[in-house]
Structure formats: C-alpha cells, structure tokens
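DM from R.C. (forwarded with permission)

"hey, sorry to bug you on a friday — could you get me a structure for this? deadline for the figure draft is monday and I only need the backbone to look sensible"
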Amino acid sequence: MLRSAGVGVGDEVVVPAFGNVEVAEAVALVGASPVFADIDPDTYCLDASAVETALTSRTAALVAVHRFGRPADMGALHEVGRRHGLLVLEQGESEAPYDEIAQRRQRAAYLDGKLRGVRTPGWGDGHTYQQYVVRVPGNGRPDRDAFARAVRGRGVECRVPVKTPVHRMPGFRRCVSLPETERAADETLALPVDASLTKRDMQRIVSACNALGGLLQPAF
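My reply, with the result:
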C-alpha cells in the first residue's frame, strides 16, 4: 500500500514502536524511514498528538495499528492526516466470529469486576479483547515479570504482549522519547479470556492474581 501510494526513498512514515516490527520493516522495504511516535496509554495505539509532534517536512504517511482488539482513534488520526496532507493507513487484526467475541467480552467483564491490585483494561468502544491486557503496578518490569512467574506457578497461562519496543531493536534503534511506550512494555501482561475457558478457569485466574496483591517485590 505504501509503494502503490508513491511512498519511498526520502520519505518518513510515522509508526508505533509498541508492537510488531513488521510495520517498521514494511516502511524500510519501500525505502522510506520509520519514525516512531508514542501511544495512548489506554488503547496502546498511536496517540494523535504524539504523531503531530513527530511530523517533519519529509513525513508522507502514518500507519495506525489496532492493538489487542481495541481500535485506534482513527477520527483523530485522519484529522492529523487531513491537516498535513498525509496518507493514513491502518493495520487491523484478524476478526473472530461474533459469538466468540461476545464470550470474550463476557469473560473480560468478569475479570474487570473481580481483579484487584492490577489495572484492568476496562470497557472501550469496539473492544473485542483479542488480548486482555492488564498493567502490573510497581517499579516496572521486575515487578511485572515476578508477578507473571507467580501467576504461572499457580497454573494460569499469561504472556508479556510486547517484550521489546521496536525502537529498541537492532536496525531500528532510535534516540527518541516514548515514555508511554516504555511504560507499557514494562508493565503490561496478557491474561487469558479465550471462549473455551470455563467458570472454574476464570475463578482460578482471579484467585491467582488476587492472592499476590497485585504488587510483588522486584525479582533479581
């Protein structure tokens, strides 16, 4: 899509650093330079004001990536694109059947009401909960990683959704201030909300998380 729109050598494309490296790789593949902008801490998608700050005279496009089943604020991003004459692209996520999404939402609502000591994602417009991502408070990554190990030790599968932001990866390292991206990478943890989970499974997730009080001493 970038190539067909004429984006190439000498151009810059604003992309998120929180997420998969494939978007930055696609920008580099057409000869353009990826420029990383910070995310909204609630949606984990590109923040329109951060995008505007990242623009230069070479900016030709921006790519919004919908994250964890919650859509980016495309209205605000399209407005930025309109004001600056930019191509606005979006990368979606694979869609699940409606009944599966409904069951995920049901399980997410249960966790929203029961979990203590972690920051739940809460309800958002159009959220399909492809991943149910909480934040573990404390001193960042040591607390989150210790929490994750303890939860797994209690028989609950969980995963760190973004281990390394793209602007820290070899080949894309940038000296750029992305505080919300950095904080999200250090604090986020995805808990299961699969449609196959039983009521007992959901109770086990809540018990495992709440038993830890949400906050552990840093792991060394």
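R.C.: lifesaver. Residues 216-220 have pLDDT under 50 and may be disordered.
me: no worries. The two ends are 45 Å apart (CA to CA).
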